[in-house]
Structure formats: C-alpha cells, structure tokens
Amino acid sequence: MRLNTPAQLPLPRGRNRAVTLVLAAVLALLGGLLLAWPGRAGAAADPLISRGKPATASSAESSSLGAKNAFDGDTATRWASAEGKDPQWIRVDLGATATISRVKLSWEAAYAKAYRVEVSQDGASWTTVAEEKAGNGGTDDWTALTGKGRYLRVHGTARATSYGYSLYEAEVYGSVDGGPPPGGAFTVVAAGDIAAQCTAADSGCAHPKTAALARQIDPKFYLTMGDNQYDDARISDFRAYYDKTWGAFKAKTRPVPGNHETYDPAGALAGYKAYFGNIAYPQGKSYYSYDEGNWHFIALDSNSFDQSAQIDWLKSDLTANGKQCVAAYWHHPLYSSGGHGNDPVSKPVWKILYGAKADLVLNGHDHHYERFAPQDPDGKATADGIVEVVGGMGGAEPYPIEQVQPNSQKRISGQYGVLKLEFTDSGYGWTYVGTDGQVKDTSPKYGCH
Known about the structure:
Elements: H1 16-36, E1 55-57, E2 79-80, E3 88-107, E4 112-120, E5 127-132, E6 139-142, E7 147-159, E8 166-176, E9 186-191, H2 207-217, E10 221-225, H3 235-240, E11 253-256, H4 270-276, E12 288-292, E13 295-299, H5 308-320, E14 325-329, H6 347-355, E15 360-363, E16 369-372, E17 387-391, E18 408-412, E19 417-423, E20 427-434, E21 439-442, E22 446-447
Parallel strand pairs: 9-10, 10-11, 13-14, 14-15, 15-17
Antiparallel strand pairs: 1-3, 2-8, 3-6, 3-7, 3-8, 4-5, 4-7, 9-19, 12-13, 16-17, 16-18, 19-20, 20-21, 20-22
C-alpha cells in the first residue's frame, strides 16, 4: 500500500526528546503548508479527470469485468484481466492532452507486485511517470507526478497472485490543456407516477412526502415521467391533489404525460394541458425540448409514439441539436423488471436516440426504481449504449419486481423517493433518495458519448 508519505524516524531518549518533538511539530506544520500550497504538483485542488472516460485493456476475465469498471466511480465494480498471464495493461483516454499530477489505484485481492504508470500522447509511444517494484496491494496513491499526455496506462509486469490483475478504481487527477475540465454542474430532481387521490391528512399518502423531499433538494428544475395525477387525471383531481404537493414548484417543472393522463372523460390530456398549460406545451405540442448547460433534454409523449408527427419532430430536433450530451424522458420504458415489463412501443424511439448517441433515458409507468447498464435498442450491453432509469416511485402504490431483465443493475420496490441527478458539461450520475432522506442507491458516473 503506497501512500507516498515519509517513513517515521525513532524518537531519541532523554533530554533531546523534547527538542525532537518540537522539531517534529515544526516540520509537520511546514509539511501541511506545503501540501496546501496551490502551486504544488499533486495538490488536493487538482480535479479528477478520468471518471467515465473511455477505457480499454489488454484482456478481461469476463464481459462483466471490463476496463470501464475501473473508471466508473463505483467501488462495487472492477476490472479483472485474464488469469495467469503477464504482462497485462489497462488504459484510459482522457479526451485531450492533460497534465497529470496524481494517480490513485485501488487494487482488489489480485494486485500487481510490479507495474508502471505510463502516459502517451498518441497511444503508441509511452513514458513512465511512476514505477512499483514491490507492491503489496491495497491503495497506491502516486502524487507529485509530472506526466503529460492524452492517454494513461497502468502496465502490470508481475502478478502478486496466481490470478490476474484487478482494479476497483483507477483515478487520474490533473488538468486538461486549455483550462480545467468543463463544469456547468446542475442538479435535477425526477420522478414519475406521483399523486394518488389522497392528502397529507392521510398518513399513508406518499406524494406529500416525495414533494417535501424534492423541494428540500431545490434543484435547477424538476422532471416528471408521466402519470402525474391518478386515476383519470381530471383537472379537478390535479387541483385537489397534485397541486397541493408537487404543484408548489410547478413553474420549475418540465412534465410529460402518462397513460393516466389519457383517461380524462373530458378528453385525452385535457386535464393535464389545462393544469400545466404552456409549461407542458412550450412548443405547442405534448412533446418538446430544451437546453441546460451542455445538455439537450427531450420530453416525449409515449402515448403517441405510433404517430409519425412526433417521430419526424424527434429526428429533426436531434439533427438541429448542438449540445454534446443528450437526455430524453417519457412514460413507458422499453426495459423494466416490474409489473408492466418491457414495452416495445418505445423501441423505435430508442433506435433514433441510439443513432444520435444519446446518453440517458428516464421513464416511469412501473412503480419501482431500477437502473440499467448501457445497452443498445436490442438489449445488448455496450459501452456506447443508452443508460435507462425507471423512477416510478413518486407516490403511487408500489409494484413488485417480477421478472428481472438483462442488464438490470439495481432494483428497489416499496421505498418511495426521487431521483437526484447531477449533470456536468461532460457527464452525469445520480442517487435514488428515499422519503426518509437516506440514499438508497448511487449510480456509476458516466461520461457523455
């Protein structure tokens, strides 16, 4: 375990001990000042620049132990090389030339006894910036480095065990040429399937509790993924229930309709449109788009995915988009392990979004929380796939998990809550927060395509 800290010297006995203690205190103070000095290479202020970036490796023990796991910010996942073979390597593409000041490696039990940390501008010629010849696993924290390049590689030359090499996380710190990595951070709260026909006077009523949580988070704006009001979404129901809770921040809400909004006796979406007005129809349709930071958000009406007008609009909207990162949301999920299950009505839209390199899809309909690994429209796991999240725990009665779908990474049923999404100009992640204020799940950190 390398922490790059100086070895401790034994203290002398007798009267010189006091002098030595004073000297040690002074040296410790000076050391602390040096660590805090802003110009020091490897200082704590250097940002993490590798999370969610594309990664490759010389081998992987299995498809679930791929290179990307070492850069996803999730210590429950890991990269593992093929067993019993030397040498092996893992590398990350930082996206641009970077000045690298620190590399932190968190090894699994199958660690490297000997390895090199290398950088490269072209991915072909490599320069060593740190080398370990007697590793003992745990955490290796290399600081005060002076490497420069677009690519960083950990090149293992001797295994400590009979297995392969395995890293929970490899973190690269420094600065990207032209300034710090893009920022533009903002928070969004999202939920679907919200207001049952009950009020705060009923202790079992959940939507007042999710609304209180959502308001406390105080995001940039709110998303709803349909079925905002139960059962038939009449305007009178919106006013009696939704408006008393989630309506408190209606002006900051970007909604989409669900199937329950179509049940209104006054006409499909009549109460929904009457309640939200131009908030839900900013472009004169029940689907629309908008930008925030480096993100393009697309709000869709999955009740009418079979109508060419919305599909044609979506294609035109994506063609005109100038933002790097794309998130879309609607009610019916293509993939779900809940009671409703997979809904193929969304597949044509997935194909369009996948072709446009969209990053994130948010859905409701099934009343549980679930996140999926990146996948393509056919359900095949792939690093350039779309991440789907089901967030239908806004207040309606929970549905049980019934048939777990491939690529489903986490499922929670019975605990009401909201998605707290964190966006930057180059990536995103989220937590699922329960109405008790506790984080129930934390996603990996993803980079935009």
